[in-house]
Amino acid sequence: MRTLKSTAILAAVTLGLTFAAAPASASTGDDDTEPTLRQLAEQAGLLIGSGAVKAGYFDDGRGPNYLDDPRFRDVLSEQFNSASPENDLKWMFIQPEEGEFDWDSLDRLVEFAEEHDMAVKGHGLISNCCNPDYVRAITDPGELRAALASHFEAIMGRYDGKIDRWDVVSEPLEVFGTTLQQNDWYRVLGPEYIAEAFRIARAADPDARLFLNENMVEVNAPKRQALYDLVVGLLADGVPLDGIALQMHQTINGPQPGVITEMVESYHDLGLEVSIAELDVHTYDPVAQADIYGDVVAEALAAGVTEISTWGFTDAHLYTWLPGSKPLMFDEDYNPKPAYFAVRDALQEFVQSDSAPGKAALSNTSGWVNGLHDGNYDVNMNLWHGTPGSYYRLYENDVLVAAQRLDPASNSPQSATSSFTGKQNGTYVYRAELINSEGVTATRSTTVVVKDAAPGKPLVSTDNWDQDGSFVATANLWWGTNATSYTFKLDGQVVGEGTLTAATPNAQSAQVTLEGVGPGTHTLTVVFTNVNGSAESKPIDVKVR
């Protein structure tokens, strides 16, 4: 992935060291004329949101109502066009006693959003935590279904037309596993609790968009597959599911490039929306943190995600499992950190063009260096003219193999290079896409036929001039892909072997000394091998008197 502009990051780090002495404000600090995250998102019809907005005074181990702080209010309304609650919607806080709802917190958040023309997402209708004792005491499935229906109907009915999308079920899978968590709902209703919750939610608000929220799938491939399988099963059973909310909590490192794209495309193929729901980055390095923030947002936008939310925005209200980490985009005094500028850059790069990218040329270098199609080559993209893209994707035989950000602000042509090594013999068809907010433009394909991945064919010889049974056998590879090992065989039996240093297209040689070979005519061969295959010499006869 490309590195963020060093000038912006260094400026942000410097500002972060000095801002504490200046009055705190909602300004981004570097240039008041620069657009906010909200302004950039709204140019392309995107939602950029902050989750973890606590608007209540209940005791959850966190501070009281964040909206009491005018700095919090100012940054939230200036930078974001969507908000969602932290724990305010969790069952024990919104209905702490059976039939007694505490609406103050959510009402306050919804009123704030309406005042500032912001959307609200209902996060946490049911989850693994925060269930009051009277709910946990229910053991009859029918009684629990009725409690769910009553709870959903009251909440979704009250906010009908004010909250249009809901995380109905959050974190159904084990945190580090692939099976369902055996939570309060599972223990009474079994694995069907998920389907039942979505059906109850659909009945409570037929027009709302209903999401399943999950964590860590971008960094845990087995869990990623388990979530996909769960979703496919739900849809096959007719469960009213509209989207997947990917939490995207990152620790130290971000997801591998292309993983977000693959997930989004797989769920889009099922007819589902995908959102980034709780993005934050837990690390100690502000530059690395900025890289991860920017790269996640850039790839998500290019993949077609239209709603991106962070899990809070100021370290004044941070939550982290990495002691000393400060995972959010603004510091404790509401000053923007490098991560803020990285997200702003990603948004600005995506939305700045008023037409789809131009059509780039795709080429490959197979055979260019030494005439060998040995599986080591580059695939190059060049956009010589036309509207630039903000993101680039490369597919090999229709499988995504590379993804990276591009800088659309440069007046020079755009280019990207992907290097491949050690490819096996076969045919590889590459195609690429350039993306910005106005569309996706595909390149023509370029095809690589690898036919020289295995070693070239060696020649074998001996110095057995006197035919006395003691001689040196020599193998030479004068031309072709190099080997990493050799094996001499006499009459089919191994008589010598070893390793070779590959440096294609340099010549290679190997020797073995044989003594005491018995009289007769013997057959000598040598086999050269690398990871992609083997090549055997033409056999020669060795006569011993």
From TrEMBL:
<keyword id="KW-0624">Polysaccharide degradation</keyword>
<dbReference type="InterPro" id="IPR013783">
    <property type="entry name" value="Ig-like_fold"/>
</dbReference>
<feature type="signal peptide">
    <location>
        <begin position="1"/>
        <end position="26"/>
    </location>
</feature>
<protein>
    <recommendedName>
        <fullName>endo-1,4-beta-xylanase</fullName>
        <ecNumber>3.2.1.8</ecNumber>
    </recommendedName>
</protein>
<dbReference type="InterPro" id="IPR013540">
    <property type="entry name" value="ChitinaseA_N"/>
</dbReference>
<dbReference type="InterPro" id="IPR044846">
    <property type="entry name" value="GH10"/>
</dbReference>
<dbReference type="Pfam" id="PF08329">
    <property type="entry name" value="ChitinaseA_N"/>
</dbReference>
<dbReference type="Pfam" id="PF00331">
    <property type="entry name" value="Glyco_hydro_10"/>
</dbReference>
<dbReference type="GO" id="GO:0006032">
    <property type="term" value="P:chitin catabolic process"/>
</dbReference>
<keyword id="KW-0378">Hydrolase</keyword>
<dbReference type="GO" id="GO:0045493">
    <property type="term" value="P:xylan catabolic process"/>
</dbReference>
<dbReference type="GO" id="GO:0031176">
    <property type="term" value="F:endo-1,4-beta-xylanase activity"/>
</dbReference>
<dbReference type="InterPro" id="IPR017853">
    <property type="entry name" value="GH"/>
</dbReference>
<keyword id="KW-0119">Carbohydrate metabolism</keyword>
<dbReference type="GO" id="GO:0004568">
    <property type="term" value="F:chitinase activity"/>
</dbReference>
<keyword id="KW-0858">Xylan degradation</keyword>
<dbReference type="InterPro" id="IPR001000">
    <property type="entry name" value="GH10_dom"/>
</dbReference>
<feature type="domain" description="GH10">
    <location>
        <begin position="60"/>
        <end position="346"/>
    </location>
</feature>
<keyword id="KW-0732">Signal</keyword>
<keyword id="KW-0326">Glycosidase</keyword>
<comment type="similarity">
    <text>Belongs to the glycosyl hydrolase 10 (cellulase F) family.</text>
</comment>
<dbReference type="InterPro" id="IPR014756">
    <property type="entry name" value="Ig_E-set"/>
</dbReference>
